[in-house]
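Proteins fold reproducibly. Next comes an illustrative record:
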Amino acid sequence: MIELDGATGEGGGQILRTALTLSMITGQPFRIANIRANRPKPGLMRQHLVAVQAAAQVCGAEIGETSVGSQTLEFVPKKIKGGEYKFAIGTAGSCTLVLQTLLPALLYADTPSVIQVTGGTHNPMAPPAQFLQRAYARVLADMGATIDIQLNRFGFYPAGGGEVIARIEPCKQLQAIEMMTPGKRLSAYAESFIAGVPANVAKRELECIGTSMGWDESQLLVRGLSGDQGPGNALLVTLEHEHVTEVFCAFGEKMVRAEAVAKHATQQVRHYLASGAALGEHLADQVMLPMALAGSGRFSTDRVSKHATTNAAVIGQFLPVGISFEESREISTCVIAAT
């Protein structure tokens, strides 16, 4: 039984999600205390509870009594089983975080899998669905995995109601890769998704992006959604390079000007481009686990977050790898090696 303290490091939900994924894959049971201890509302929130229940269903795990607010969990996995699964968060809690818990594990299933998750698809505290589609899934494809992610309906905070479907083919062994430079830029574009929000909001956001980045109208795209998917506004900037695709996002909120939303997105993009690194902060955090499953890997990133170092420590509890970071002012390098 691996013992984990949810208060260590960043102290958020990633400790739990990584433990669930790796417990399913390795068959090692774990016990965690102080779940999300460093958050304003500690313990399991709805999306975390669904991630636990989903993981338990996928591998037939024993989990005991769990509910929203629970701060301890014991997880004893059995065999991962492919198939069709449906999970409903019931709030705007993140579909993408539930999916990220399950996707790597289902690569080790005996048959293909289809997962439908309903809930939030676009909220400020989690990667948007397009991040999984364009950035995360591309890295996994480069490692030999076949994953298709389909966004059927947007779910903005606080209403939720979104739907994402993922299809996963078994892949018993991921291939080790290195991602040290982004390579030549192939395309760059910004999209403003609006539902139940005046079209002028999207226009202003995109004008700011165009002026700041020097982009023309063909790169600035208004994505109008049906009003019943709102109200909501998400501004996404996608950079497709030879070796990696990155997605940056900012979200419209009440009393926040469209220009401020665009500035937030632009700052992220500029920081990433100025660094010359292959991966942005969030993608760097997410690729460590599949690289560790491959046995080794190396990448450069524009920033090593506390989220990432905490994630690395949890991975090391389950897998025989060491994860080290070499940090400099502009760029940092993460090295994953067998121990």
The mean pLDDT is 93. Residues 152 and 210 are 28 Å apart (CA to CA). Helices lie at 14-26, 46-59, 95-106, 129-142, 199-213, 258-275, 281-294, 306-318. Residues 276-339 form one domain.
